[in-house]
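ok trying again, last paste got cut off:
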Amino acid sequence: QVQLVESGGGLVQPGGSLTLSCAASGRTFINFNGHAMGWFRQGPGKEQEFVATISWSGDSDYYADSVKGRFTISRDNAKNSVYLHMNRLETEDTDVYYCARNRENLLQSTRETYDYWGQGTQVTVSS
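nice, full thing came through this time. structure:
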């Protein structure tokens, strides 16, 4: 089975930081090279929300207004991995976070433009 695997979630106090990681796992190798990568999040009873995306080269990125200035997306193509560095976390950031591979190398915010997804990692921001 081919999948992406997220890690790094957990419980953190408001104002704290976490870094999420995403890598490919499975018998069929998912090559991140040549594709933009993205992060989404979803909470109970909520619509899935776009968080951030980064181009294949890492030179371009795009963020949701709700996280701009607090979150940073990065990638390491040699490790076929993508990261989400989250700072100044707020209680409203509590969600399950998913990474996904864009079908092309486009900075897009709609889930239909992504073809491979992870199972998600829980981030809880609470005092």
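cool. The chain has no helices and eleven strands. The mean pLDDT is 93.
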